[in-house]
Amino acid sequence: MTHSETFPVTENTRLRRLPRRGSYDHAAVHAILDEALVAHVGFIGSAGQPVVLPTAFARRGDVVILHGSVVGRLMKTLAEGVPLCLTVTLLDGLVLAKSAFHHSMNYRSVTVFGHARLVTGANEKEAALRALTERLTPGRWDALRPVTAKEVAATTVLELPLLEAVAKTRSGPPVDDAEDLDWPVFAGVVPLSMVAGDAIPA
Ligand SMILES: Cc1cc2nc3c(=O)[nH]c(=O)nc-3n(C[C@H](O)[C@H](O)[C@H](O)COP(=O)(O)OP(=O)(O)OC[C@H]3O[C@@H](n4cnc5c(N)ncnc54)[C@H](O)[C@@H]3O)c2cc1C
Fold this sequence. Notes:
It is built from four helices and eleven strands. The chain has helices at residues 26-35, 73-79, 122-136, 149-153; strands at residues 22-23, 38-44, 50-56, 58-60, 63-69, 84-96, 104-114, 117-118, 155-161, 164-170, 188-191.
């Protein structure tokens, strides 16, 4: 029997609510990160106000790569090494129960806690930007007009080490109360998925 490596269970990531839906396996966390295209990053802004911002990202090995404008608040704040929480969510379905109370959603989600670090060095930055581009549009980096030194300098690249992470998943039909099962309304799952349309030439 083989064991996947697992993330430690910490005060941040210990699932108290429905822990059976959780997984600390690297493989489970990586699979969700690798399917999602958008992450939401939460941190405390300068005035003490919590902020959550959506952003593109890519996993490369044991780190998540983030990038953005050097003048943007997101990159400037995260580059200071502030505590952050990164969340990704894959929505798999609406779960329609007999009662409003038991409605739910099928999903696969991940939370990562930690501190980002600045990637310095033009070569390291370019490698990270390549990984990010290839993640979103595989095979495209080499076909593109090569990135310039000025563009690399205008882009902040951050790495978030995957040290503290957990996945949570719901799947399957609604869980109705036995006495509701004959109630005359549809119950079941409406599957949802993200589908790419036909590309529209510019
Ligand atoms: C698409 C979607 C819809 C949801 N709708 C609702 C809703 O309407 N109402 C509601 O109360 N909850 C909803 N949830 C579940 C919600 O995300 C929390 O799991 C739940 O509210 C329990 O939160 P908690 O802080 O009490 O859990 P706790 O178990 O105390 O959380 C402890 C730690 O577990 C981890 N964790 C908790 N939830 C998740 C998660 N979903 N994914 C990854 N890690 C997690 C985090 O690291 C967190 O810090 C939804 C989840 C998804 C993905």
